[in-house]
């Protein structure tokens, strides 16, 4: 349940009452949605959340009508975010720190792309067995740690042939210097640096996720894998990013998720006009791409918002025009060359 003062709720409800009358025909749909997602509210909050939900539902329905007519290449769907305002959604889900220039403070190894790479026109690391199940960051702004574990899991799989779910909580608790801040955001490349400094990372099973910052409990005896350093793709180099996904494995990327529609993406190939800002505020994991479809193809991205979002937790993102600034911040762990873990 969201925390909001009664006085603020009364003001917000009264404000919306003048502009938005609740639709009685949606009463059953509203009850079903609350039951599906386990939503409960205090009496003062119910009307406010219902009004927010109805506005979001109307936006979704309007978009889908236009998508059915061919205006868009993707569709939206009501999900567990439906009772959140734009401001609340932004605060809860956008958790990659936005100072991209900070990447230069810790230098990685720049990926050198080929002029004419010999790579397939489609790659999907899920079908290769290198991607774990879709996870859920919950109300914690820890997307950076989920993106990082996804890349580390892929790295470990490629090195050993074993797929092991790794601990986001391990990264949150132990990656607090100099900039990462648990539920308040962080950088994936600094998560890789943490694994390097610790000498490893524990599994999800031995160090489970609880969605809040705690003390570092990393156990070197339970380490699953190590990384030696991290690599980075040149900014705005989608061709280099594609080659890296094909040759290296899943890649951690920053995404501009400011669009309200992003939060309610359900299916199709997501594409929105680019406003020209070089901004990233959410971390995801590229697990593949497809160039054999119409147009320039699409990226396959794994999210950390549960399987209730998108295509069972995944998104297809239009490729070739740096949609959502997908090639602005792309990094990956480099495995320790030593044998074993």
UniProtKB/TrEMBL annotation:
PROSITE patterns named in the record: THIOL_PROTEASE_ASN, THIOL_PROTEASE_CYS, THIOL_PROTEASE_HIS
Keywords for this protein: Disulfide bond, Hydrolase, Protease, Signal, Thiol protease, Zymogen
Domain Peptidase C1A papain C-terminal per the UniProt entry, residue ranges: 119-334
InterPro entries attached to this UniProt entry: Papain-like_cys_pep_sf (IPR038765), Pept_asp_AS (IPR025661), Pept_cys_AS (IPR000169), Pept_his_AS (IPR025660), Peptidase_C1A (IPR013128), Peptidase_C1A_C (IPR000668), Peptidase_C1A_papain-like (IPR039417), Prot_inhib_I29 (IPR013201)
Alphabetized Pfam families for the sequence: Inhibitor_I29, Peptidase_C1
SMART domains on file: Inhibitor_I29, Pept_C1
Signal sequence region: 1-21
Segments forming domain Cathepsin propeptide inhibitor: 30-89
Family under the similarity heading: Belongs to the peptidase C1 family.
Protein name: Procathepsin L-like
Organism: Pantherophis guttatus (Corn snake)
């Amino acid at each position: 349940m969201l925390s909001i003062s009664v006085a603020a709720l009364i003001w917000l409800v009264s404000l919306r009452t003048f502009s938005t009358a609740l639709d009685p025909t949606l009463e059953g749909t509203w009850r079903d949605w609350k039951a599906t997602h386990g939503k409960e509210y205090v009496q003062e909050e119910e009307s406010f959340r219902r009004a927010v939900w109805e506005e979001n539902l109307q936006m979704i329905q309007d978009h889908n009508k236009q998508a059915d007519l061919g205006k868009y290449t993707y569709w939206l769907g009501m999900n567990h975010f439906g009772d959140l305002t734009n401001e609340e959604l932004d605060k809860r889900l956008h958790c990659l720190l936005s100072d991209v220039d900070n990447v230069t403070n810790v230098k990685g190894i720049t990926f050198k792309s080929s002029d004419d790479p010999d790579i397939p026109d489609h790659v999907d690391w899920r079908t290769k067995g290198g991607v774990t199940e879709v996870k859920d960051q919950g109300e914690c702004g820890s997307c950076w740690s989920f993106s990082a574990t996804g890349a580390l899991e892929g790295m470990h799989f490629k090195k050993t042939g074993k797929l092991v779910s790794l601990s986001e909580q391990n990264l949150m608790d132990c990656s607090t210097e100099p900039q990462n801040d648990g539920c308040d955001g962080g950088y994936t490349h600094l998560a890789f640096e943490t694994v390097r400094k610790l000498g490893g990372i524990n599994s999800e099973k031995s160090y489970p996720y609880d969605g809040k910052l705690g003390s570092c409990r990393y156990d070197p005896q339970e380490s699953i894998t190590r990384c030696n350093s991290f690599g980075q793709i040149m900014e705005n180099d989608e061709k280099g990013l594609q080659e890296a996904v094909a040759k290296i494995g899943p890649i951690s990327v920053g995404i501009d998720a400011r669009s309200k529609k992003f939060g309610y993406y359900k299916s199709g190939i997501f594409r929105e006009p680019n406003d020209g800002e070089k901004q990233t505020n959410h971390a995801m994991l590229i697990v593949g791409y497809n160039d054999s479809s119409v147009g320039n193809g699409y990226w396959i991205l794994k999210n950390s918002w549960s399987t209730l979002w998108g295509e069972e937790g995944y998104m297809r993102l239009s490729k070739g025009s740096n949609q959502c600034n997908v090639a602005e911040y792309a990094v990956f762990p480099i495995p320790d060359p030593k044998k074993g873990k």
